[in-house]
Amino acid sequence: MAALAGCGVSNAILEIDGPEIPIMDGSALEFVRGFLNVGLVDQLKPVQALKVLKTVEVYENGAYAALLPFSGMEMDFSIDFPDSAIGQQSKLLNLANGSFVNELCDSRTFCRYSDVALMQSNGLALGGTLLNAVVVDGAEVLSPGGLRYADEPVRHKMLDAMGDLALAGGPIIGRYVGRRAGHTVTNKLLHKLFMDASNFRMIPCDSEVSQRLPGAGLVQNDTRNFVEKRPSF
Length: 233
Known about the structure:
Mean pLDDT: 89
Oligomer: single chain
Strand content: 15-25%
Low-confidence stretches: none
């Protein structure tokens, strides 16, 4: 969902031949590559965007998520984990044009080694390896090559939120704020947004609006040699 939204794909049929989406390296990079390699097709009817009109907030168990009015799409995310390999991280990003592809799409999901051990002892995640996610244990990054970015974990959380927000049914014109937020909190935020019709307005995405949203101007070369150019931390 994040790859679709980040590439500006608003109308697609997904066919899945299996019990779940392949995790691959734990990021959205290969999906983004696939979309850009095939190319996008403009359709005759303009996309309808959801413009946030009022601040909507959700608090739950120390986590916080909010949507605020903004002229485009912006994300402000912070995380705080006890493992010093992650620790406290924050990132603010305007998601216009290719920001998702250039800044977020190759950021992998992450987990703590203690959580992996617990899951596998209960018969879960048995097919997972250190190549499917960033696994940390205290100050140590166990996955080969280390982190792709010093702040890769918070970038992946932003990638997650991008996919969660895509469930709104169209691009969101607004500012998303997440503090230790996950899928559940962001989903509850969307439910609260739709509970009151005065919180938002649907508007057509003309050329001016589209330039302020993810996906505009992307080309196939945007992901070429992506892996080779990444630093390791």
